[in-house]
Amino acid sequence: MTWTAWIPVLVLLTSLVPAVVILLLPERRERLRTALSLAGAAAKVALVVALVGPVVDGRRPEVRVPFLPDVDLVLRVEPFSLYFLGLSAFLWLVTTVYAVGYLRDHGHHRSRFFGFFSLCVVATSGVALSGNLVTFVVFYELLTLATYPLVAHDQTPAALRGARTYLHYTLVGGVALLLGAVWLTVLIGPVEFADRGSPAVAALAASDPGTLRLVVALMLGGLAVKAALVPVHGWLPKAMVAPAPVSALLHAVAVVKAGVFGIVLVVDMVLGVQVAEDLGVLLPLTVVACVTILWGSVRALAQDGLKARLAYSTVSQVSYVVLGVSLVSATGMTGGVVHIVHQGLMKITLFFCAGLLAQTLGLTRVSQLAGVGRRMPLTCAAFTVGALGMIGIPPVAGFVTKWWLGLGALDAGEPWVLAVLVTSSLLNAAYFLPVVARMWWGKAEAGAVLPRPVGPEAPWTMVTPALVTAGCSIAVALGAGLAFSPLSMARVIVEEGWWP
Amino acid sequence: MGDVVLASLLLPLAGAVAAAVAPARRTVAVVTAAGQTVLAVVLAVTVLRDGPVATAPGGWEPPLGIALRVDGVAAAVGLLAAVVVTAVLAHACASPASTGPATEPAAGRSAYWPLTLLTLAGLQAVLVAADLFTTYVALELLTLGAVALVALGGRGAYGPALRYLCLAVLGSFAFLVAVALVYARTGTLTLDLAAAALPPGPALTTALGLATVGLLVKSALFPLHAWLPDAHAAAPTAVSPLLSALVVKGSFVVLLRVWTALGGDAALASVLAVLATGAVAWGGVLALRAAALKRVVAYSTVAQVGYLVLLLPLVTPALAGGDGVAVDVARTAWQGVLLVLLAHGLAKAAMFLAAGTLVGVAGSGRVADLGGTAARAPVVVTAYALAGVCLAGLPPSLGFVGKWALLDAALTGGRWWVVAVLLGGGLLTAAATARVLAATLREPGPGDGPPPGTPHGREEAPGATALPTPRAGERWPALALALLAVVTCVGSAWLADLVLVGAPPGVGG
Question: One MF term from GO for this chain (chain B) (predicted)?
């Protein structure tokens, strides 16, 4: 037992302790609240950095607590856990800074907000570090519960309705996941996540493929709700009523990502890609992912609300991850895994900008954005980077993803997927480029007077995070070939861990 | 250790007497409950380490004497009872209104303290009694204490209390007839000896049937539940938690013992399976529809009793000499249901305390009038929410551990209907909690609270000061119980081990 063995628990505590303390703080203790949030976030980033060395050396810090007499709760740092944990730790830090600015003038119930915000991160970190299915289910459901107060934060009837829809979808999805997880545990004992899949699952696939197929369908069906796959994506646009930092977190690291992270875990660390292919679960997954990619984009076209457009864009973009891991090809899987980070960076940038526009100028609709680039150039520049990335234009991260996914589709012998990718990129362009064009070159309509600029365009606490994540979206693409770039990490995870 | 068992019986009785005559009622009651908690911890640790503790006070040995025995179930439920009573008494100390309406004569309120300890003594006696007649006496003591507590609710509670008394006495009577039948046939009142001496046949079936029906009336299994929502909702705030979390558990534990000792009955088990399913569905739906907050919580108890009764059909095949799989199912189900029982005890006590406090804060008992309470009483609403999470069996909570084990048992045994009941019931419970939470988050009507987005630089928005907020002592006991229901999720394996100590051989004890 070395010091690294306890790091998984410390990682959870860096957000659990702030969460509990902040929830108990009175509303006016703003400085202490901010300090706690930032200290927790910074400590988590530091821990993640400290973990990189040991994990590269092949160590897998692990903590076990008995849950039932023969089932343990397990936290373990695998390379894939660290990859997702790193994303969430970094984006949490950035989003905390942004949220402090966002809520400074217009906030209410801020202790509740930041408390549950931190609790969300506990849940996300727990999801990332889960070493077996039980642990995953525990944190996955905790995430549902911790995000409910955030979605309902504004307490308006619309917010409460959105939150209720969110809860209905995710709880029912959780039931399917729970049933699948218990069933699998009954069949083969506690299911530990392992590279190339669990051997016990492989044995079951040989002896009773029918039951295993049913179990996997239940689990994937449950996970699909949070991953917002068509046809169970309906909660995501409704959850748009949440404040912008929450939407950013929901779409980039927490809820939606936990869903796809779970799907990737089931396919690559429970079944293993070989067993998954033999069972025949990959092709249906590819089809669902493609349908979701196209349907999300088509719906995004028709949305005038900026956040609604971004929400449908998330439905579409997150499915690239599912598409990637459903391809029987190391290249395709790498494309999927790398998009977990890429989509997170780009989408969080876009939501930061949407929040900036709404909070500073009160603009929430695409049709109101004409000429706003002259008033808020930095915000609109960040938005442009995110939008170009989503379309897949180099040198932004989205291009790297689409390149690898395309190669993977050919490699896996599914050339029709290329057509989906091309169509989707065209649709992406069709719903993002008009927004960008209107921002920079649009003429403000008569009567729609933008307020006169006074001083900086917005509080630095809100602009800086957007610029940082936009910069990162470009950096991860330009530096894709370097060691420890998301792409290199994804390649290591897939080629050394998962590819048979 | 026999002395500790005896002490755990006598301490609350002595406390009840002292609280009835001494002027410092509250202090006596709280000190007694705290002492009982210490005894319960000692007993639980002993039982976990050394196995069941048996004693026969006064040297009256079986087959006729008073036999006391603390097995894992008794130790675990006894610990639950001591913890819950301590927390509820702490709440009652802080909030005189929670022990009865101010309009009642002062004697009513002061009776709360001895009656609570009497009920605790009755429950402890039910748990440790090892012979049937002592069990009967203990059940009566428990019932009388509980009925008197309901009546503390004032005029509106007299009717429900009387109805509760009638039904509970009828249930006791059925149980007594069953005891008499067993004694007439076997000449012993000790359960194990009687079970060995009683051959299968009409006598055994009749005794089992009578005992089951009588005890289920007391535990309020659907469709014999009608008294419960009235009684539990009419009782004062500091009484409802005791009734829902503890009193209904006493008769259930007795039923579990009688059922497993007498070997169960397959036909009766099928009927119970249907009734348990009905309880989960009916209680769940009515909790979702009830207009009054305390009735929402009370109907949730009706549903939870259904989960508990699920255990009987699940253990019956193993009792009838089933194979290894049947024993496996029975053992896991036993652990699961008892964890659910403990989880429900903690969570329901927290929920009723929170509900009572919220009713006071909102100034109305209706769910629809709860608007704005989340802002004025965030701790209480958090306690309610955490308790709801535990009752719905969502992670992370003890209820989830119990549900996982029960699902495991149901899937291992191929009982798909149990799976459906568990998952469907969990969703209904979650929906009922979400409904209440949404109501507390809703903005109150115009003029009685700050609108959203009010700058909080000035904390005291005009109009907000006049609205009541809970006192400190009303916040923390409920939150403490709810947190306990949640954090026991981690490392709950010892509880699962504890409840198996001294369990019947058929379930792998």
Answer: NADH dehydrogenase (ubiquinone) activity
